[in-house]
Write the C-alpha cells for this entry.
Amino acid sequence: MRSAKEGIAPLLNARRDILQAALDELSEPVAIWVLGAPQAAAQEDLSTLLSLQPLLSLRHREPAVADSLLPQVHYPVYGMSLPTDDVPRGNRFIGFPTGFSLDAFVDELLALSRGIPQSSPLARETLSRLREPVTVRVFTSPG
C-alpha cells in the first residue's frame, strides 16, 4: 500500500501511457487547481501529469479564499478552469482522484478544453429552475 508521504506521483507514473493518450486529446489550455495543499507539494505531486501535456498548468489557492462552499477537509481539493478564470469551476475532487475517479478527472479536463458543457441538457434545464443556492455532495470510494 502506498503511504501518504509518497504522494500521487507513483500512481500517475503507473498509468503514464494511458494518461498520455488521453491528454493528447486536449485542444485548449486548462488550469488544474490545487486548494489547501502547499504549492511546492502540489507541484511535485502533479509534475508527472503536467509533463504529459504542455496545455496543462497548475494554479494554487487556499480554500477559504477560493471557494466558501468547500467543506473543511484535511486533504487537498482539486479542481480545474480555463487559464483566464480566477477560481476553479465545475466539479471538485477531495483528495487526488484514483481508480475510476481519475478517469472522470481526465474526462472533465478534456470536456473543459473542448468547451463541451459539463452537464447534460436535461441537467442544465433542471438547474436553471433552481431559485436558491444548493450544494451537492457526491461521495465515492476508491475504485
User: Anything to note?
Assistant: The chain has one domain: 4-128.
